[in-house]
Structure formats: structure tokens, C-alpha cells
Recover the amino acids of this structure.
């Protein structure tokens, strides 16, 4: 049997992937002593690779006495790389470098550079780049494109871009690599600039180029530019593949154009999991969990297995729409199908349960998820913050530190508000030290949260120290400092700081005016408060919110201008019957013994919420202040008849870096007996002191 016949039979086996027949031909080749025939060996290697038998392919090469054909080396390296066997590629290249009779050529380097990218071995890649230059292939466009691609995939974007700029000749692959560089480096605008430059230079974008360009539009939320690219594709008759179509669906979805996303999605003939995920993500951003579940059902019907991305997108939609039942359905699917959830799925589940108020389920998910990633801890801290469980948030932070997980900027910005809400300054200072340890004291967001914490805990000097150290002050930092002064009796300092803010680049917003109005209210600065209230409307064009009116009503109420405050409520339809504002004015009526207006407002409040005990208590106290005892008795009887009780307040104290909460008649504290005994002794001393003073 001659070589031509053997080669023909071997190629037939390759096309049909007939391994059994191929092995028989291999035996025949060996028995005829043709194991050194380069052409036959190349085809044997191709046969074994097509059947995913990599070791036999390697043995074919190793049994050649003297492999003097570079195409044989290149073919094996290309096959290794195509099958992601990158280490074998580099080992073979290393052997080639030490083989005395051959040198790498232009077809060798692309495979080797791709292997370097796959392994992330940038040092080896740089060595290969040096070999390319020494081999005189520095002007070969394909080889240099591969070098650019290697640097890009190893995240050395500057090196990739510099090399691209130095290339005298470029191809589509090199353009794609550098456009992808800018996209991955968070510069989508620059990626689109290069995309346009590529077209002007006469290059025809391919599927890879278009996918990156459309993804850049999605990242920029640039719907018009994305539409223009789509129109160009339609005009040119470009056949959309799955990647480009999925990128278009993703772009339209992220830009809020769901109708176009649906239309494009419907036109995809063979929808892969990426296409489905893009469409689901579009609905997820809108919080349309029902549509997400419907797509999930259709995926199942079409035999497409959902990925973790699919599941996390649906869970985020359920979280946004607060649809606990649908979220539980997906959670059930994960459990039934034994899906190994990643950090994103677990975090989405935790967030869903917190948003829906199901704290026990959120805690259960957290207990069963890996705790080595800072994200899982951050989700729990922010979850507890959302539901107002500030003590629990601080507890999670403490446990996080104990397990050795390093907090990041998100951790600190999430946990510092817990200190603010609880007023636990010592714990806040402790966290400040952790921030310094983590070298995050220059992070603007973290420093802003730190400033806010000190301000709300009454440590005005510390807050001012941080404020003065800020390299740049945005409106948030100005507002925090103004609020710190205002809420701690330093109204004039607050007003002076506000004047400085107005002269700076940072412009006040509604929250800033709220801080100023609150400062005026606490200090009883009626004229100034009314001035800034009007300035907010006339000079800055802000429509006052309920909170702004609350400050104004409180300000007027404190100085006894009750009728004026009531008239403001009456002539403003949006706030006329606001319970919070009426309650503020009602309390002011009690303070100033304005019985007639107080009774009128009291009746309104009772009509709106007949089961609120605080209204009856204030009304009773108001009658008592003017000695209307019959009216007091009537109100008290009404409270008793309705079975109303004032909701117990909660207090806490920070002792030895521990926070101890207390509720009225609460005996849950482990040292409750001793605490009550101390209270009894204190009460006894107070009574004795009163007797002596009389």
C-alpha cells in the first residue's frame, strides 16, 4: 500500500472521525516503517486531536526521529492552543527553541502568544515578544497583532496600545484587540472613537469589533449611537450572528428601550444562553420579574440550561419589584437542581429577602454561603441597615473582622451609618482606626461617610478636622458639616459655612437647604429660616418637600406663630392634610397652650388615625396644662376604651465598646436584676434629695 493510498484513507477517517479505522491505518504506517513520514504524521495528529485523544497525538510527534519540518511543530502547537492545552504549547515551543535545525517562524508565534494569554504568563509573553523582534518579524502584521492581543488579554493595556500605535501596518485583529483594551479598561468612549477611526482607515469591522462597539454603547447608555450602529448593519446587509444580536439586545435593555430589545431578540434564529440572559437582564433592570420568569420558562421549554447569570438577574428583578413569591420560586429551583450558587446568586438572594422583610431567610442564606468573600459580608451589613437593624449590622462587621476578611470601601460606607444612627461615637472611632489600617483614609466616599458619622454623633470638632482635610469638597461633605453645626446648637457657624459653600464650586441641593432650615429651627432664627426657605424656591428653583415644610412649621411653632404656620398648611394643597406636619403643629399648640387651634388639629389627626395613642396623650397633656380636668378625664377614658398603649421607646448605651439596648420593662439583658436594683437605689436617693431640698 503506497503513501498516497494511506493518506487518502487517513483523511477519510478524519472527516468521519472514525477512530477505530484510523488506529488500524496508524498500525499499518508503523508496520511499513513510515512513522517518520511528515505528511502522514501531520494527519495522524489531526485525527487524534479531532477525537480529543491528545496523548496519542503527542506520541506520534515524539516517535519521529528527526522532525525537520517546522509546519509539523506549528500544527501541533496550533492544535494544543485550539484545545486550550496551553502548557503543552509552551513546552513544545521551549523544545523548538533548543532544537538545532529549526527556528520559529511567523506561524509559530501566534499560537505561543495565545498560550501565554490563556495562562496569564505575561513574563513569558514578553520573552516571546523579544524573540519576535530578534527573528525580524517585528513588521509582520499577524505576529504583531498576536503580541498586541497577548498584552491586552494579560491586562497590560498601556503596552498593548503603545505597540498598536507603533505598528506601521494593521489588520482587523489588531484593531479589535486595542478597541477591546479600551473597553476592558473602562474607557468605552475611547473604544468607540477607535471604532470610527478603524472604519475611516478602510477596515471592515467584523463580529468581534461590532460586539465590543455595541457593548461600549451599552456601558455609556448611549442609545442613539447604538441605534446608528444597528442601522448601519441593516443598510450594509451584515448578517447578525449570536454575539452581535445578543450585544444589541443587551444594549437596548440597558438603555431602557425594551421594545427594540424584544424585537431584536425575536429575530434571533438560534438563541443561545447569552441571548436569553441579555433579554432577561433588560427586564431585570426595570424590575419586571413577571417577564423574567416567563422568559425563564421559555428557556426551559427550548432546552436551554440557565446559567448563574440568568438566576442572579431574575433574583435582582424580584428584589427590585419586592416579589417574594417569585424569588422563592427561583430559590427552590436552585435547591431542587442542586445548583452550586456563586457569590452573585447568594448575594441576590440575601438582598431579595432583606428587601421583602424576610430577615430570617436572609440570615439562613448567609449562614450557608462561603464567608471568604467581602461581598457576602457587605450584603448582610447593607441588608441590616435597610431594615433598621443597626446593632446587627455592627455585629456582622465585628464577626467579619474576627474571621479575617478584610473590609473594603463598601464595608466602611455601609457600617458607618449604623454608628451615626445609634450615636455610638466610640465604635465609630474604632472603625476610623480600621479605615486608616486599610489605607482608605483618602477614599472620598469613605471619608464622606466618616464625616457624616462624626457629625451625627455630635463630635463636631472631629467632623470639622476631617472636613478641613478634604482635598475636594462636594455638596455632600458641605451638607454634612452644615448639619453637624446646626443639630448641635451652632446655628451661626452653620449659616457662615453655608455662605462659603455658595461661593464655592459646590452648589447646594434640597438636602443642604433642609440642613440650613433645621439649624434655624433649632436656634429659633425665624427671619433667617424664612429667608432661606424663600431663597431655595426663588433663586435655586427647588420645590419644597414635606421635610422643608416640617422645618418651617417647627420654626414658626417654636416661637408661637401658630396661626401663621396653620395658614401655610391650609394654602398648600400638597401638605394640607399631612399627618407629620399637623402633628408638629399640634405639639407646638400644646407647648404654647393654644387650645382652640390645638383642638381643631387634634380632631383632624384622630379622624385620620383614630388608633394613634400619641394624639390622645398630647391632647390630654394640653388640657392638663390649662387645668381643663374634665376634658383630661374624657380623653383618658377614650384611651382606655380603645385599649391604646403608647409604643415603648428603646434606648441604648455604649459601655466598654459594647452596645446595650433597653426597652421599657425589658428584662432580657443578662444583668437585668442588677440594673433594676441600681435604678431602685438611684430613685431612692432622688426621693431623699427632693425631701431635703423642701
Amino acid at each position: 500500500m503506497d503513501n498516497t493510498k494511506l493518506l487518502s484513507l487517513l483523511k477519510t477517517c478524519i472527516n468521519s472521525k472514525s477512530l477505530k479505522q484510523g488506529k488500524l491505518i496508524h498500525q499499518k504506517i508503523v508496520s511499513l516503517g513510515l512513522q517518520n513520514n511528515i505528511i502522514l504524521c501531520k494527519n495522524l495528529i489531526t485525527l487524534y486531536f479531532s477525537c480529543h485523544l491528545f496523548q496519542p497525538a503527542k506520541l506520534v510527534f515524539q516517535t519521529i526521529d528527526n522532525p525537520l519540518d517546522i509546519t509539523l511543530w506549528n500544527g501541533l502547537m496550533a492544535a494544543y492552543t485550539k484545545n486550550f492545552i496551553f502548557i503543552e504549547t509552551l513546552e513544545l515551543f521551549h523544545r523548538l527553541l533548543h532544537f538545532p535545525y529549526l527556528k520559529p517562524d511567523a506561524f509559530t508565534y501566534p499560537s505561543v502568544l495565545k498560550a501565554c494569554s490563556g495562562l496569564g504568563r505575561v513574563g513569558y509573553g514578553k520573552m516571546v515578544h523579544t524573540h519576535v523582534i530578534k527573528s525580524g518579524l517585528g513588521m509582520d502584521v499577524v505576529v504583531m497583532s498576536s503580541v498586541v492581543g497577548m498584552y491586552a488579554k494579560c491586562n497590560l493595556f498601556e503596552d498593548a496600545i503603545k505597540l498598536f500605535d507603533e505598528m506601521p501596518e494593521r489588520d482587523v485583529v489588531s484593531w479589535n484587540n486595542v478597541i477591546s483594551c479600551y473597553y476592558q479598561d473602562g474607557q468605552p468612549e475611547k473604544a468607540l472613537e477607535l471604532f470610527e477611526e478603524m472604519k475611516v482607515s478602510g477596515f471592515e469591522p467584523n463580529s468581534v469589533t461590532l460586539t465590543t462597539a455595541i457593548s461600549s454603547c451599552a456601558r455609556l447608555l448611549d442609545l442613539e449611537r447604538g441605534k446608528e450602529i444597528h442601522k448601519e448593519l441593516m443598510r450594509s446587509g451584515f448578517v447578525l450572528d449570536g454575539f452581535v444580536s445578543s450585544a444589541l439586545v443587551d444594549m437596548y435593555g440597558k438603555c431602557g428601550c425594551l421594545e427594540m430589545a424584544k424585537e431584536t431578540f425575536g429575530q434571533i434564529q438560534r438563541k443561545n444562553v447569552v441571548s436569553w440572559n441579555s433579554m432577561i437582564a433588560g427586564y431585570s433592570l426595570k424590575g419586571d420579574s413577571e417577564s423574567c420568569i416567563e422568559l425563564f420558562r421559555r428557556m426551559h421549554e427550548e432546552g436551554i440550561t440557565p446559567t448563574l447569570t440568568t438566576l442572579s438577574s431574575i433574583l435582582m428583578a424580584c428584589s427590585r419589584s419586592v416579589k417574594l413569591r417569585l424569588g422563592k420560586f427561583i430559590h427552590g429551583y436552585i435547591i431542587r437542581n442542586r445548583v452550586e450558587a456563586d457569590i452573585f446568586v447568594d448575594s441576590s438572594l440575601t438582598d431579595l429577602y432583606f428587601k421583602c422583610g424576610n430577615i430570617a431567610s436572609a440570615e439562613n442564606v448567609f449562614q450557608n454561603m462561603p464567608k471568604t468573600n467581602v461581598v457576602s459580608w457587605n450584603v448582610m451589613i447593607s441588608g441590616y441597615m435597610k431594615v433598621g437593624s443597626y446593632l446587627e449590622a455592627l455585629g456582622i462587621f465585628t464577626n467579619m473582622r474576627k474571621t479575617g476578611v478584610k473590609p473594603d470601601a463598601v464595608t466602611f460606607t455601609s457600617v458607618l451609618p449604623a454608628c451615626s444612627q445609634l450615636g455610638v461615637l466610640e465604635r465609630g472611632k474604632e472603625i476610623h482606626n480600621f479605615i486608616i489600617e486599610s489605607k482608605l483614609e483618602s477614599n472620598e466616599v469613605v471619608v464622606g461617610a466618616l464625616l457624616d458619622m462624626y457629625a451625627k454623633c455630635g463630635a463636631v470638632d472631629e467632623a470639622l478636622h476631617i472636613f478641613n482635610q478634604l482635598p475636594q469638597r462636594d455638596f455632600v461633605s458641605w451638607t454634612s458639616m452644615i448639619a453637624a453645626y446646626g443639630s448641635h446648637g451652632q446655628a451661626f457657624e452653620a449659616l457662615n459655612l453655608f455662605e462659603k459653600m455658595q461661593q464655592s464650586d459646590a452648589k447646594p441641593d434640597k438636602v443642604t437647604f433642609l440642613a440650613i432650615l433645621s439649624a434655624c429651627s433649632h436656634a429659633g432664627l425665624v427671619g433667617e429660616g424664612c429667608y432661606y426657605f424663600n431663597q431655595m424656591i426663588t433663586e435655586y428653583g427647588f420645590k419644597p418637600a414635606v421635610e422643608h415644610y416640617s422645618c418651617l412649621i417647627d420654626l414658626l411653632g417654636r416661637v408661637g406663630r401658630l396661626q401663621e404656620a396653620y395658614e401655610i398648611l391650609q394654602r398648600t394643597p400638597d401638605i394640607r392634610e399631612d399627618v407629620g406636619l399637623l402633628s408638629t403643629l399640634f405639639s407646638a399648640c400644646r407647648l404654647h397652650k393654644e387650645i382652640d387651634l390645638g383642638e381643631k388639629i387634634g380632631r383632624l389627626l384622630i379622624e385620620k388615625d383614630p388608633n394613634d395613642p400619641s394624639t390622645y396623650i398630647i391632647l390630654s397633656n394640653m388640657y392638663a396644662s390649662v387645668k381643663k380636668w374634665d376634658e383630661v378625664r374624657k380623653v383618658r377614658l377614650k384611651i382606655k376604651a380603645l385599649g391604646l398603649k403608647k409604643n415603648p421607646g428603646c434606648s441604648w448605651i455604649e459601655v466598654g465598646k459594647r452596645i446595650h439596648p433597653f426597652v421599657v420593662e425589658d428584662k432580657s439583658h443578662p444583668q437585668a436584676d442588677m440594673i433594676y436594683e441600681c435604678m431602685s437605689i438611684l430613685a431612692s436617693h432622688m426621693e431623699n434629695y427632693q425631701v431635703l431640698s423642701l
